[in-house]
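With this grant's support, we have paired protein sequences with backbone structure tokens. One protein thus recorded is set out beneath this paragraph:

_____
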Amino acid sequence: MKKTIALILALTLLVALPLFAGCNKLDKDLEIRVWTLNGTTGFGMAQLIDADKNGTAALNYTFTVETAATNVRDALINGTADIGAVPTNMASALYNATNGEILLLALNTRGVLYLVANTGKVEAPASLADLAGKTVFVPAQNPTFITKALLDKAAVANVTIDSATYAEPAALQAAVAQGLVDYAVLPEPMVTIAKTKAAQNSITLSESPLNLTAEWDKHFTEGSLVQGCVVVRKGFAEDHPAEVAKFLEEYEASINFVTGNPAEAATMIVDAGIFAQAPVAQKAIPNCNLCFVAGADMQSAMSAFLAAMPVASIGGKVPDEGFYYVAK
């Protein structure tokens, strides 16, 4: 009797094994539509885009590079994108606006903001406290929210934040390079561009701009300044968990390649349409704070960051635990 039972179990296992293997089999014909942004948020995607062009990626990707985060947001909402790279506050707002239909996959960029001073006219600030009584120009949206939160937490009073005059980072970068402002908060790679153009215009900028990530770590949870991420449509993640897992694996490898090989990655960044100038991209990559953070570490960093943001900027409330994608 025991031999009979053992034989039945063995046969059952032999039949079941192919079924279990099939559960993890990748659908290489499935089109995975990935939308990313130009600039820093898209830098880490460059090697994966290159692999897809060369036919060496594990999956069938279709990449779209956008200049406006709102375009990526809309594509996720209307279902023309499956995965998207967006600012972190937008990811939260998407989750809240869609009643949980957009999930956070991974963080891809920590803090990339620096305070640049026109040192031909003013002293370079050694700390945030040196900004008291000054006017600081900051791009609109996430950079403004972050700068205000940081100044409030550091108890620096009487700072005027101007996010209307030069709302776009490129416009502020141009103003800095022309010597039109004394103090400005810029993201990389705009800092690198501004310094290069300022030198051509005989404008002297801070040799070492004040790193707002380092300042953030003094006043908030260390490592919680996170500015870029990738999200996924919940329905897509539920229907294709193996493909999502493989994307994350390839994406992490892409980010690691970019950070470890700035010169080669810079060419890929330009070829992908993520940024126009390879020398600038190469020089900026070490200061772009690219990262790949998923799982529990992603949740702790993101929740701490969102708690520091004004609720209006993150969709009205800090998302619940359902926001964080955990591979099944």
